[in-house]
Specification:
By secondary structure, the protein is of the alpha+beta class. The protein has 12 helices and 6 strands. Helix 8 packs antiparallel against helix 9. The termini are far apart.
Length: 300
């Protein structure tokens, strides 16, 4: 029987080769530990023995820009222990273990479960998908419908999961529910007029397309964030190389949002200001519809 550490090292090398470690702001790889509470809590009782102790998958991989998905990787040293007939022996088999952990994480995440066994000379890999809130596992396939048999970059894994019809439908429903919540928040908390709401959303999505804004907006105090927001919108629109007159016409409507009194003052509930809260909500909930799906009127 082989050494499981050899399998883990092989997986780690594959992750590196496919760019998983290139930028920790884009992809976070954790080995038998996890900082995110919503992952840590369910795994605290997910031991494969079924005794209610902590469970330790070999790898947990997340992408901050896609917060509703998680990748879990389980390894076994010997390909003979890749998968049991009933997939009900998580202690002994890689597939069984990966699916075991996926079920603990699925109440909060769409889970991509990867099982790996063997070494560089002889190995097996299996890829599964468990949509959030579901109990029915399915094979993970590429958007083209082809089965995944080898590890691919994180973006490709997330894209494959995103185009699953059930995942797509759930995300669409979540976006509609979120839009209703955002409508109430902008009306009641920010006191925005109907005509101002789409400007806030559109302006924020433009600003979030700037990597600098997306990574630094949260450090700005409430009174300064609207100015940074407005300047970022201007900078992003200028990148389109439009005539100055057209740039002025496009950016002028956003100036009313920049000086909106309710958006620039800290409150007890929102010490960083309401604009900060709006930006944060949009940054957390909308990106998949901007980067993966291209058939949605997100502002609408």
């Amino acid at each position: 029987m082989g050494n499981e550490r050899v399998t883990e090292d092989m997986v780690d090398a594959l992750l590196r080769a496919h760019g998983f470690y290139d930028d920790e702001d884009d992809v976070v790889v954790e080995k038998q530990q996890w900082a995110i509470a919503v992952i840590r809590t369910p795994l605290s009782k997910a031991s494969k023995s079924g005794k209610g102790n902590v469970g330790y998958p070999e790898f947990i991989v997340t992408a901050p820009a896609t917060p509703d998905m998680v990748v879990v990787v389980e390894c076994k040293a010997d390909v003979r222990f890749h998968e049991s007939n009933e997939r009900d022996k998580p202690v002994d088999y890689a597939v069984d273990g990966a699916l075991h952990y996926a079920k603990f994480l699925s109440p909060n995440y769409t889970v991509i479960a990867i099982a790996v066994s063997g070494d560089e000379q002889t190995n097996k890999m299996s890829f599964f998908l468990l949509p959030r809130g579901e109990t029915e596992l399915k094979d993970l396939v590429a958007p083209t419908g082809a089965a995944l048999t080898d590890l691919v970059p994180m973006d490709d894994l997330l894209r494959a999961a995103s185009f699953d019809p059930l995942v797509h439908k759930k995300r669409e429903r979540d976006l509609i529910l979120f839009s209703q919540e955002m409508h109430v928040f902008m009306r009641d908390e920010a006191e925005l007029a109907e005509a101002e709401k789409p400007l806030v959303v559109a302006g924020t999505l433009i600003a979030l397309s700037s990597e600098v804004f997306a990574k630094t907006y949260d450090v700005y105090p409430a009174k300064d964030l609207p100015g940074f927001w407005m300047q970022t919108i201007k900078d992003e629109i200028k990148k389109a190389s439009l005539p100055v007159s057209k740039i002025d016409n496009m950016t002028q409507p956003f100036t009313a949002i920049e000086v909106h009194p309710e958006l620039r003052k800290p409150t007890m509930g929102y010490p960083k200001g309401l604009l900060n809260e709006i930006v944060t909500l949009l940054a957390e909930r909308v990106p998949p519809f901007m980067t993966v799906y291209h058939d949605y009127d997100v502002v609408g």
